[in-house]
Structure formats: structure tokens, C-alpha cells
Amino acid sequence: MIKLTIFIAAFYCFSMAFAQKVIQADIQSILNVRIVTTFSDKKLVLWTDALDGGTSGMATTAAVLTTGDKTSKALPDNGIFPSDESHPKVVLNYSNSKPTGFQARRSLGVDSFNIATPKKQYKKVFLFCMSGNGPSNLKFRLTYSDNTIEQCDRVVPDWFFDLKPTDTNLCLLAKDLGKWDKNNKMMEANHHYLHGVILQPNPTKKLVKIEVNKDKKGVLTLWGVTLQR
């Protein structure tokens, strides 16, 4: 019994230590659109802002099931994606349990915004995005606690396309998703992707801020930011 208790305590400490290596950045202050239809208290809460600036949005699995569709691939109800070989555990800013409020940052044209990060050392930063009406070109400025700055560029592919073997600074969070209109009616059943942009900050320095600058091409939606220590 004592050995079992010690094992459980050790496993708990190990699990907590591992969990602390992943931080979901708080980006609530920069969110400005609702792009996912959810299902809460037995009611649909429809998306109001199109992913591509037009007529397309996403839906949770529970919302899609209300249409009788049991086969189309939709988003997890709670916004949580388990870790895999390409990314850590991710928690996005939508959920059936949060029926109101903004879910993403949409940039229709030229846009700039800042992401504050807990002042720590990180191995990787994942920014989960979709780009409609073509790809989105992004420039990043990473600011450290010693006031030094690093810069890098990334391209978010159009959400219609899977990754290429050369996309080494990208990962996939969700693939082959359907898309739905403002009335939760199926528009297309598959081939839509939620991409992850991967940044690799200096692991010896404490990151405090990420500035994101987008040019006029594409309609970008930023869904969440996950920091890996």
C-alpha cells in the first residue's frame, strides 16, 4: 500500500512537471471574431464572422450532429487537441461551454498585433491559424527580457491545402475538416486544414512578447497560441 501511494505521488509530480512545460498563451484581448458554431444548453450558437471574409465558418461536432450528419469531420467540442508527434497539447479559444464571446483574431488585410508571453524560456511557439482567399504572409518580431529582438518570416497556406514535405516550420492541428454556412448547413465536406505556425525562439533567453505583422494578402484567423518550454 505504501509503495502504491509513493508511486501515485511520484506519477502525479511527474505529470505536473510535464504539464508545466506547455503554456496556453492568453490572447483574449486581441480576439475579435466568432467563427465556430457551437452547441450549448441544447441550442445552436451560430458563427457570425466568416473565416474567409465571405460565407464560410466552422462548427463543433455537437453542432454538426444536430443536422443528422454523423460522418463529416468537425472540431472537438471543447477546443482541446491532444499532443502528437508534431505539437504539444493545445487548447483553442472556442468551446461548447463558452456559448458567447470571440473565438479568434481575424485580419482581413494589413494588420499588426502583439502576443504577451509569460517571461520564460521556450523551445517552440505554435500559432494555430487558418488563411482564406489565399495564403497569408507573416513577419514576427520576438522580444526578450534583455530587450534584444529576433525576426523571422512565415507563410500560412490557404486552408484548402494540406502541408507539403518542405513545410518544416508548419504542422497540422486538424485536417480534412468540413465547413458550414451561417445556418449550420454543410457547404463542403472536407479538405480544410487548421495549420500551426512554428517559431523557435532563443531557448537561453526569456521571451516576453511576439509582434505579428501581416501583409494585405489573405484573410488570416489566429485561433490560439501554445508555448512549449
Q: Key features?
A:
single chain; 10% helix; Jelly Rolls; 2 helices; 229 residues; mainly beta; four-stranded antiparallel β-sheet; six-stranded antiparallel β-sheet
Question: Can you describe what's shown?
Answer:
A hairpin with a 2-residue loop joins strand 2 and strand 3 (43-45). The protein has one domain (20-228): Jelly Rolls (Sandwich), CATH 2.60.120. With 229 residues, it is mainly β. The chain has helices at residues 2-19, 61-65; strands spanning 22-24, 36-40, 43-45, 58-59, 80-81, 90-91, 105-107, 111-121, 124-132, 136-144, 149-156, 170-174, 179-180, 186-188, 194-199, 206-214, 219-228.
Q: What is the first-to-last residue Cα distance? A: 35 Å
Per CATH, which architecture?
Sandwich
- The CATH class turns out to be Mainly Beta
Contiguous low-pLDDT stretches (5 residues minimum) are 3-19
- Separate helix tally: 2
What is the 3D form?
globular
Helix content bin: 10-25%
Short description:
The chain has a single domain, classed as Jelly Rolls (Sandwich), CATH 2.60.120. Helices cover 10% and strands 40% of the residues.
Please outline the helices and strands.
Elements: H1 2-19, E1 22-24, E2 36-40, E3 43-45, E4 58-59, H2 61-65, E5 80-81, E6 90-91, E7 105-107, E8 111-121, E9 124-132, E10 136-144, E11 149-156, E12 170-174, E13 179-180, E14 186-188, E15 194-199, E16 206-214, E17 219-228
Parallel strand pairs: 2-4
Antiparallel strand pairs: 1-17, 2-3, 5-6, 7-17, 8-16, 9-15, 9-17, 10-11, 10-16, 12-15, 13-14
